Amino acid sequence: MIHKKFFGEKAEKVTPANLGEALQQAIEIEIATIPTYLFTYYSINRAPSQQQMINSLTHALLEIKTETPYNFDQATALALDLSAEVMVFANKAGALIMSVAIEEMLHMALSSNLKQAVAGMPILNGRSPATWPAELPGHQPSLKINTSRLSMKQLETFLNIEKPMKPKQKDKLLLKAYIPYPTIGEFYEMVVDCLEKNPELRYNTHAPQLVPGKGYYAQNNIDTLYYDKEHKPVFTNEDNSGDLICVADKTSALDAINLIVEQGEGQLVKDAPYLDADNNLIFSEVLQYDFSPKKGEESSHFEKFAEIYQKYYALESHYNSLNIQDITFSDLFVMNIADNPTTSDYPAHIAPVSDLINGVYTYIFVMIEECYRKSGSTQYETFMFGIHKSMIFILNSLCGDIMKLTYKTDAGIEYNAAPTFENYPFSPIARPKNQLQDLYKIAVAVYPAISYLGNRIDDLPDVDLK
């Protein structure tokens, strides 16, 4: 789907005339982050075999030729310590990234509630990035985002997406499409400014929204849970971290925006040595700064990614200092997957599974749109029996299943397959659920291991394209 170009050639602020389009841009900013975070999440082996890790590391340590080589007991003890560190880190990193992805889904819903209240129907289907790498909509300077496995480079991209803002003089940047912004916080600041300065704005209190009190949003699930070194379970999102907000007036609209910004970038930063005078990140300072939250407070997305970034750097630096050959640090817990894969990259035994994943992924947005058309029991059934089931049971399972499959590129490089998170082009002449069922039949024929999902797909709500 071709994205609409917003705001003309010289839009530089949000006004009542373009507020609806600005809120649509907000929705697309939030949507763009979801697949890049999810892809990196699925690249992590959160439960690698510790014994296999100990065995391979012990062997590698014994192979190191130095004047004082490790003996077996020394190598085994070091391998045990290393493997324990990696096990805890991999599990926690995955939990933190999934916790952010879940809150991005909340932010997408809050932005959609805002648009529904002040400008009409939010558009979600087909608004995920069409190709990868992609650009974060409207970010100035251009910020490339990728579907890539966990690495220091990918974490730096995440930090740039979520970086906080410092008070500064407003620059008048021009861009020929979206409203430009240097940080997401400053984009929402422009929306807040428009809401504050235009009290004549009217709020639609009759159109359906996704509201609290119905169980639509859960801040945690099994994938946001990790175990610390004492094997105690820890959820990464606090119970009071936030919820859906029904937008009915200026106060509730501002509450929704404040929640998005606080969860993502955090509070306004006045003295941050990790940001230069132009608000660019200084990654050497990110490594040194203490981002620990106060007791009972939840870290922002930026702070969560900074925590992963610091720990990854420390562990990798220590690992590299050991001079282990043939096994890189990431080999221990990160899947061997290509960057920015597409379904067209995959051979015949994988492509149908990828098509099914993309169909389910796209159908989720189709169903969410339906929730903004229908209220009451119809909305509840669509969300609880459609979106929750698709996200938690079907999509999550398929993403894990496809990564058990391998393929070789034309250059002879072997990779594990991965979800591509492409918009699936549902035909308008047939119901999308029927098309999804057809995709399942084709996929299960080449990969029978996913047969357990057939009934779950059959039970999804039958929602039409609009």
Description:
With 466 residues, the chain is mostly helical. The protein is built from 12 helices and 6 strands. The chain has helices at residues 19-42, 50-63, 72-118, 152-162, 184-197, 250-264, 283-286, 301-321, 351-371, 376-402, 432-446, 454-458, and strands at residues 134-135, 144-145, 225-227, 233-235, 406-408, 414-416. The strands form 3 sheets. A two-stranded antiparallel ribbon has the order 1-2. A two-stranded antiparallel sheet has the order 3-4. Strand 3 and strand 4 (233-235) form a beta hairpin. The longest helix is centred in the first third of the chain and has 47 residues, at 72-118. The two termini are 14 Å apart.
Radius of gyration: 23 Å
Structural class: mainly alpha
Name the shape in a single word.
globular
Q: Could you give a short account of the major beta sheet?
A: 2 strands, antiparallel
> Which segments are poorly predicted (pLDDT under 50) over 5 or more consecutive residues?
1-10, 169-176
The helicity comes to 40-55%
Number of helices: 12
β content, as a range? under 5%
H/E element sequence? HHHEEHHEEHHHHHEEHH
By DSSP, the count of extended strands is: 6
- Strand order of the biggest β-sheet: 1-2
Distance between the termini: 14 Å
